[in-house]
Write a structure and sequence with these properties.
By secondary structure, the protein is mostly helical. It has twelve helices and no strands. The longest helix has 19 residues. The two termini are 20 Å apart. It holds the Pfam family HhH-GPD.
């Protein structure tokens, strides 16, 4: 597909889903450091177990200083509801140590400094942290600091591919930049596109048996035109 065709299709998708799901205000869903750590815990873990692991951790150790100073084995035990608790415990403690050592923090555990940081620099800093990938970094920067980035999770990626905005050779990592380049660089627009495709992938364009009969994107969707119809 030519770039101009994909750009037209993404803008049509954005417009249709804005109407279908309704426009959303961009509001942080969680405090920044919680957003970062919770998203790290969410890797290959459902939301209920992510939440259980997060609250187990803080109930056991009290605060971020307590988590940082905890024995590794005890922290891994508290994180057992999440997949790979040992790996996540090690990464969380490393991340908290790096944050505490950030010069501007003067020993505090806070990521408030990201608000003033230029977007690419903030992305580079976040993705340099152990256990923090591009999806986690973009979610945090868009949701909490209203930076113009495009988070791509499995739902956003799947729906964008089925519609024909992304090609079969695109990867989730590449998709962050590809989708961002075609969308308005307005954090509110990017947030709406992300959330609407997330919901669409959860409710209608599901993985195994997409509910195409309910989909408002049928007329522009490659999957519907080539496979279903």
């Amino acid at each position: 597909m030519k770039k101009n065709d994909a750009r037209q299709k993404i803008l049509e998708t954005h417009e249709i889903l804005n109407e279908f799901y309704g426009r959303l205000e961009l509001k942080p869903r969680r405090e920044p450091l919680r957003e970062l750590i919770s998203t790290m815990l969410s890797h290959r873990t459902n939301h209920a177990n992510e939440e259980k692991a997060y609250f187990n951790m803080l109930e056991t150790f009290g605060d971020w200083e307590g988590v940082l100073e905890a024995k590794f084995e005890d922290l891994a035990d508290a994180l057992k509801p999440a997949q790979f608790p040992g790996q996540k415990a090690a990464n969380i403690q490393k991340v908290l140590q790096i944050i505490k050592a950030y010069p501007e923090n003067k020993g505090k555990i806070s990521i408030a400094f990201l608000e003033k940081m230029e977007t690419n620099a903030a992305l580079e800093w976040l993705t340099s942290l152990p256990g923090v990938g591009l999806k986690t970094a973009t979610l945090l920067l868009l949701f909490n600091y209203h930076k113009p980035v495009m988070p791509v999770d499995t739902h956003v990626f799947r729906v964008s591919q089925r519609i024909g905005i992304l090609t079969a050779t695109n990867t989730p990592e590449k998709a962050h930049a590809i989708l961002l380049e075609m969308l308005p660089k307005d954090p509110v627009e990017l947030y709406n596109y992300h959330m609407h495709l997330l919901w669409h992938g959860q409710k209608i364009c599901v993985w195994r048996k997409p509910k195409c009969e309910k989909c408002p994107l049928k007329t522009i969707c490659n999957y519907y035109q080539e496979v279903v119809r």
